[in-house]
Amino acid sequence: MAKTNLKKAAKKKTSKPRKTDKAGAGTLHQYRSATCAELRAENVGTVARLSGWVHRVRDHGGLLFIDLRDHYGLTQIVADPDSPVFSLAEKVRSEWVIRVDGEVRKRSDDTINAGLPTGEIEIYIDDLEILSEANELPLPVFGEPHYPEDIRLKYRFLDLRRETLHNNIMKRAEIVASLRRRMTEEGFFEFQTPILSASSPEGARDFLVPSRMHPGQFYALPQAPQQFKQLIMMAGFDRYFQIAPCFRDEDARADRSPGEFYQLDIEMSFVTQEDVFQAVEPVLRDLFLEFADGRPVMEEFPRIPFDEAMSKYGSDKPDLRNPIVMEDVSDHFRGSGFKIFAGMLEKDPRNRVWAIPARTGGSRAFCDRMNSWAQGEGQPGLGYIFFKDGGGSGPVAKNIGEERTAALRKQLKLEDGDAVFFTAGDPKNFAEFSGRARDRIGEALELTEKEGFKFCWIVDFPMYEWDEEENRWDFSHNPFSMPQGGLEALETMDPGDIKGWQYDIVCNGVELSSGAIRNHKPEIMYKAFEIAGYGPEVVEEKFGGMLRALSFGAPPHGGVAPGIDRIVMLLCGEPNIREVTMFPMNQQAQDLMINAPSTVSAAQLRELHIRLNLPKE
To answer: Which residue in 37, 304, 355, 555 could disulfide with 329, CB within 3.0 to 4.6 Å?
Structure first.
């Protein structure tokens, strides 16, 4: 086990070893009188009983050393040839489960292990019982070498014995417990919402559950408790939270499980957007301070409008550890000798030229590497200027001339040894690539901080976005959000200009949650869905419960739902969410350990009135 967890375990002793002689050992508990992290120098001379897994066996010329491991830690067990169970001890192998009795002895000064809480003592075996043998292991527990993910997931119960993963799961449990305590202290109440729900036309694909009692009809596992938590507010409960399971049939990513995940679901009544921020921000900040292990945590979360986030960082989930801020430099290229950019600006008033400053990146070699990287990303290239000897170098500088180059340098506050890269066109088409280039430059030049946690709120999201494939407006965020300007905005403004009272929490470039101030008026709900192409009959069919609740007196309310898995992933310093999930699926949404999903019997299908229509191979 890791040192930090061992120290915590040592503070939470399960029982005190009895001060007894060997003859009294029979009075001990059947399996253990102490955990494998509990015994100290003060226990020398007592008889203890431990049970656990054989972590490692070492044979030192007649003396046999066994590192015995349980959930709490390690204790060194010693068997010498005079022990009555020496021959039995020689048979044990890694991951066998054994019970040992023996005298607690102090280690000699030269064998003390200062890195182990039990490192001052060892137990000399008087009695040993093999509780369970282990077959040859498909992956090692000791040492934690890299192993293929399919093996790790198939034998997850073994993988979970490994130190790092075991500690991640324990940290997750501590984080969840801390969140529950903090939310309760903030005056929130935990309520549970249904798992069997109704399918929704919005969001990701639902997981459907056929109804036996209602043939041809289906439940859906909730993508989130969205409607239920709003209904809780309409029922008058004021402040709700839940560690809520959510289910979405979507592809896996490093920061997203393919089937299920957990979120800290929150809803509040009679609140503005700022009220939600004031309630949630201290909970997250103090949680990260508690588990950051000394890494710095941002004290105040800046509010960044969506449009500003896209123009400065090329992303609505910016990593603020990266100091690079992009700027619009279009005016320096209008009518310039760099015909590619000048022509774009003249052709379409929506087109822009953005600059990505790269301090310390001022060498042709680095600029060429970035240009090659851009081509590998499917781009024609990445224009650049690098500065030396008081001027700018490179094809862009040559074409726009010294005066414009100097003006660019002044605007961006760059010096000799720095560089700047350019992207151009309609920002909605190149902003995302610009953001990836910003990230790449920050990492390559080691400008991005490696430690610490930087948060921000992204606010003022567009209420709608244009769907090119469907040729219609669609919700860009939560469809139950209150538009800024209310019904008047929906009736008088272009849908692309309407902002919603919608917000995200972002930490280190990871979106932790989405939230919103909710619409609480039926007429606004009808109009909002009408713009997205849903008639009143669809709204009434799919969201009848919500409409009925809104029509019987609904308070203004809002909430947010930070993702538990992503919070734990950040605090554990893990790049992949499967490293902080007890029993994850693989990227193909399969549980290799229990073989899910699986086929079911014909009798089960008949009971559900289902006939399979499988695709042809």
So the answer is: 355
For residue 558, what are the β-bridge partners? 268, 517
Per-residue confidence band for 26, with pLDDT thresholds at 50, 70 and 90: low
Query: What pLDDT is stored for residue 223 in this prediction?
Result: 93
CA distance 230 to 240: 9
Which of 484, 559, 474, 546 has its CA nearest to residue 514? 559
Share of the chain above pLDDT 90, in %: 87
Buried b (16+ CB within 10 A) or exposed e, 46-71: bbbbbbbbbbebeeeeeebebbbbbb
Of 58, 38, 12, the closest CA to residue 104 belongs to 38
CA distance 509 to 443: 13
Tokens of 527: 């109009």
DSSP letters for 20-71: --GGGGGGS-SS-SS-TTT--GGGTTSEEEEEEEEEEEEEETTEEEEEEE-S
Answer whether residue 445 shows pLDDT above 60.
yes
Q: What's the CA gap between 107 and 302, in Å, rounded? A: 54
pLDDT of residue 61: 79
Cβ partners under 8 Å of residue 511, min gap 6? 316, 317, 504, 505, 563, 566
Would you give the DSSP letter of residue 614?
Answer: P
pLDDT at 617: 76
Distance between the two ends of the chain, CA-based, in angstroms?
48
DSSP 615: P
Closest to 192 (Cα-Cα) out of 237, 157, 147: 237
Q: Which two tokens stand for residue 143?
A: 């040492």
Q: Is the peptide bond before 597 cis (omega within 30 degrees of 0)?
A: yes
Parallel, antiparallel, or unpaired for β 189-190 and 239-247? parallel
Task: Give the C-alpha separation, 472 to 479, whole Å.
Answer: 15
The token pair at 135 is 């077959």
Q: Report pLDDT digits (tens) over 248-263.
A: 998 877 777 888 999 9
Residue 467's SS3 state is: strand
Tell me which DSSP letter residue 446 carries.
T
CA–CA gap between residue 9 and residue 99 (Å, rounded): 20
| Residues forming beta bridges with residue 218, ordered by sequence position | 210
**395 is written with which tokens?**
């094809």
> How far is 380 from 383, CA to CA, in rounded Å?
10
- Strand partners of residue 424: 353
Structure-block tokens of residue 486: 């209310």
pTM comes to 0.90
- 48: tokens are 């203890």
